Amino acid sequence: MNWSNIESGWNDFKANAKEQWSKISPEQMDDIEGKRERLSLQVQKSYSVSKEDADRQITDWQEKQVVKQMAGKQAPAAKS
User: Three-state SS string across the chain, please?
Assistant: First the structure.
């Protein structure tokens, strides 16, 4: 998934981001506004990790969002 999809749909992704990074307050999540760099900075501050580690966490989370989105789009199984 392209980050621009996350940024434009931040309100839809914010709850999942909050689950991933529970130390980030709802107000801070609002302030991030879907900007990857802002999320990275907040992860660095809240979890005392390096920029590289924060970016890796965000990339891993981003990949999970693709899986969740694909699972949500699967057609229901046909009844036999």
Answer: CCHHHHHHCHHHHHHHHHHHCCCCCHHHHHHHCCCHHHHHHHHHHHHCCCHHHHHHHHHHHHHHHHHHHHHHHCCCCCCC
Domain spans of the chain? 3-63
Tokens 């900007």 locate to: 35
CATH 3.40.50.970 fits 3-63, yes or no: no
Whole-prediction pTM value?
0.83
Give the tokens for residue 47.
């979890």
Cβ–Cβ under 8 Å, residues 58 and 43? yes
Note the pLDDT tens digit of each residue in 57-80. Answer: 999 999 998 777 777 665 444 444
